[in-house]
Amino acid sequence: MKKNILAVSAIALAGILAIAPVYANEGHGHDDDHGSEKNHHDSKMAGDDHHGDKKDGMVAMKKEVDGYTVNFHIMRAKPGKEMGGSHDVMVKIEKDGKIVNNVVMKTKVVHPNGKSESKKAMRMGNSLMAGYNLGHEGKHKFMTFFKTSDGEKHKAGIAFSM
After folding, report:
1. Can you tell me the distance from the alpha carbon of 2 to that of 100, in angstroms, rounded to the nearest whole number?
2. Reported CATH class of domain 2-27+45-161
């Protein structure tokens, strides 16, 4: 049991350390014209109005939803350290610059072929994580459904290509 906890903690720390340089770059290299959302976005889900930025096999972006900042980070799982799939999907929620830890989160991925799967996210340090098989090419949609300690329900999503 202790070995599993140490392995999970090491993976979470590696994910946090890997994402720091991406978040340090405020622009994330993204060139979408945010003023013309209806011209290139077809989803009606709150927060699913922006495509993820892919850099060195990782996707990282932030969304503002209901006063919360939802940080998404998707990266390939290290060989032998897969926790539910080929990729680790990490989500960190903040409010007023502080990490919000008292949340329950479910996640859902819609694959390029239209099939979807859902998983409950597990706590990994300051983030919540779910593993999915995302190794196939095409546009994926990732959605989070989270409930905060005040009982309110929120949802946020991103679209990205692998």
Report:
1. 26
2. mainly beta
Answer yes or no: pTM beyond 0.70: no
Buried b (16+ CB within 10 A) or exposed e, 74-93: bbbbeeeeebebebbbbbbb
**Contact in structure between 160 and 52 (CB atoms under 8 Å):** yes
For 123, half-sphere exposure in the C-beta direction (CA atoms, 13 angstrom radius) is 9
Q: Which of 90, 85, 110, 93 is nearest to 155 (CA)?
A: 93
Show the CA angle centred on residue 157, arms to residues 154 and 162, nearest 5°.
160
Interval 11-63: pLDDT, tens:
444 444 344 333 333 333 333 333 333 223 333 333 444 444 455 567 899 99
121: tokens are 């996210």
pLDDT tens digits, one per residue of 112-161? 999 999 999 999 999 999 999 998 899 999 999 999 999 999 999 999 98
Residues 19 and 25 sit within 8 Å (Cβ to Cβ): no
